[in-house]
Specification:
It is a single chain. Helix 2 crosses helix 8 and helix 8 packs antiparallel against helix 10. This protein has one domain: MetI-like fold, CATH 1.10.3720. It is 74% helix and 0% strand. The chain contains ten helices and no strands. Belongs to the binding-protein-dependent transport system permease family. HisMQ subfamily. It comes from Actinomadura namibiensis.
């Protein structure tokens, strides 16, 4: 018990590392997560539409991509992209930030693609047929009717995926960020190595909780609102009918 308190609850070390965590560490983590989520959403939507295509040449690459990036460990994907594909690091890629965003986006795109695909498939097929009966093309019916409804239905899953991206951003320290580019985990790790104590990593974990716990409650709120909104309104026959009281005029 004493070892636990000494190694993880040194409040002086936590107090010293918190300013760096809450200033540029938190900002860098959010920057990585938001940029990766936006690019991953674009990749995911393309994969979802390809996966739902009737053409095999479109479905097969999407299936291979999703299986590949969902099956590989996140650390290995980041190393392959950062140290393999862009190992030369020339020009604007001299900064590891674009490489880190690309690696996180490639991974998240595979998961978001499956989320979008399930949402689009949950929309009643009759709506697409009704759009075509009104003269809309297949692409127009997807863009205007089917895809917006499918995305709305998977909002809780998308927020959950954003939480996963925030936590996966801790793995970009493999790419060797400079001091001003360090995200939350790298700051905590560097301070833990310098002090020989793991309390800075506990402070890092608290910062991750600051980010993820509100998002978790947001997921629950969205899910609850969507379930309440999907309840059918009471039918007219089920509503109570007022009856005339005795002695009242007809």
């Amino acid at each position: 018990m004493n070892d636990l308190l000494h190694n993880f609850f040194d409040w002086e070390l936590i107090r010293q590392v918190l300013p760096d965590l809450l200033t540029y560490g938190l900002a860098n983590t959010l920057m990585l997560a938001v940029a990766s989520a936006l690019l991953g959403s674009v990749i995911g939507m393309v994969l979802a539409i390809m996966g739902l295509s009737r053409r095999r040449w479109a479905r097969l690459p999407a299936r291979v991509y999703i299986d590949l990036f969902r099956g590989l460990p996140a650390a290995l994907t980041i190393l392959m992209v950062g140290e393999g594909v862009f190992s030369a690091q020339v020009g604007w890629l001299a900064s590891p930030y674009p490489v880190a965003v690309l690696a996180l986006s490639l991974m998240s795109g595979a998961y978001i693609g499956e989320i979008f695909r399930s949402g689009i498939q949950s929309v009643d097929r009759g709506q697409g047929e009704a759009c075509r009966a009104l003269g809309l093309t297949h692409a127009q019916s997807l863009r205007l009717v089917v895809v917006p409804q499918g995305v709305r239905r998977v909002l809780p899953a998308l927020v959950n995926q954003f939480i996963a991206i925030i936590k996966d951003s801790s793995l970009v320290y493999f790419l060797g960020l400079v001091t001003s580019q360090r995200e939350l985990f790298r700051i905590g790790q560097d301070e833990a190595v310098a002090s020989g104590n793991l309390s800075p990593l506990l402070a890092t974990g608290l910062c991750y909780l600051i980010l993820t716990v509100p998002l978790t409650h947001l997921v629950n709120h969205i899910d609850r609102r969507m379930r309440e909104g999907s309840r059918p309104a009471p039918a007219a026959d089920d509503r109570p009918v007022a009856t005339a009281t005795e002695g009242a005029p007809a």
